[in-house]
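User: Structure tokens for this complex, please. No commentary.
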Amino acid sequence: MKRIMLLGATGSIGQQTLEIIEQYPERFELFGISAKTNIETLLAIQMRHNCNVVVMDEKYRHHFDGKFYNLDELAKCVEALPKDVVIVNALVGSVGLEPTISALRGHRDVLLANKETLVVGGEIIHPLLKRSKGRIIPIDSEHSALRECLKGRSLNDFDKVIITASGGSFRDYSREQLEDVTVEEALKHPNWSMGQKITIDSATMMNKVFEVIEAHYLFNIPYENIEVLIHKESVVHGLIYYKDGNIMTHMGPSDMRIPILTALQDDQLLAYRSFFDLAKIGMLHFKRVDAKQYPLFDLGIAVAKKKGMHVVTLNAANEAAVDLFLRKKITYLTIEKIIYDCLNRFDNNVTLTLDSVIEHDREVKKYVYEEYLGGG
Ligand SMILES: NC(=O)c1ccc[n+]([C@@H]2O[C@H](COP(=O)([O-])OP(=O)(O)OC[C@H]3O[C@@H](n4cnc5c(N)ncnc54)[C@H](OP(=O)(O)O)[C@@H]3O)[C@@H](O)[C@H]2O)c1
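Assistant:
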């Protein structure tokens, strides 16, 4: 029986993880759950699973009988879990970093959907992974795909990897058309049904920058050897070009329950019915990312290569800007403006530690809210 602490249980990945857990009660037990504000959904999960541990804002403590932690104690909660409990990190944003580090320090496996963890903390986590008996197992379709293609092969065996991008909600829009797009339009992803932040990140292509960073740290691949192709069908998720000329590719439907199941199941494969008919799909298209259409992609990759606090600034500016856009406080194109502004404004030559990352993340976000919202 695998016991699971599900961080972000009420979100898109959290809910799909629950579906898998509930499909296999003989294999998985939900040990603990967390959410930020969605009390109704968390209570419903608690009714069904009677979890040992709940993490949420202090004001909801009276709803729960068992062990309860306040939201700012996520890392402490992870640290105190029994040794066999694995973490599914389905939080959104840099808040996912501390519990991941706490889990790895405690030699636990982390099944990681929260890509911002590796974006802001990759440089801290990379050496930690060498010391920890815990592993990071990706719950992201592209990285799960690469992991499947790599099975039985060494990292020295390939020349390059390709991850694909759908192009997001505005892949057929001109720059002029982007000037007055709405939040509702931005949230209509053509292929995937996901949480709000990642849907906007897909439209701006920042999500793909984050995934390149994720791949760099997960598989130890130099940035020069990671390519991105726009593939509007979202059928091929990852490709590996082996040195001997063979190219391994991974295909599958746009269904996150497959990478979730893959991360959870270990060596004994579990059954999952997926409806995937290549004949119906008919054609697959691939093209390079157009820098004019997606200026944040080239910018983001350049920042990723600089490493250090530059990437923390990029992520924090993006998180705050996307939040403001979702709250209809700024236009879609102001997301770009805010990111450029923050990258120019902040001193990024600071030594990277967990504390300095958290502090810098907070400062950048504070600046964005003050400057673009008047502090709200
Ligand atoms: N959705 C996908 O298909 C997909 C695919 C690949 C990777 N990912 C990655 O997986 C992560 C989760 O994405 P998602 O789409 O599932 O997000 P989501 O639907 O927005 O869910 C986020 C979860 O985190 C909780 N949360 C939000 N802010 C928090 C905070 N400050 N402190 C503690 N908990 C907080 C939310 O609680 P409340 O519900 O109470 O607000 C919710 O449970 C992201 O990093 C995303 O990039 C997602």
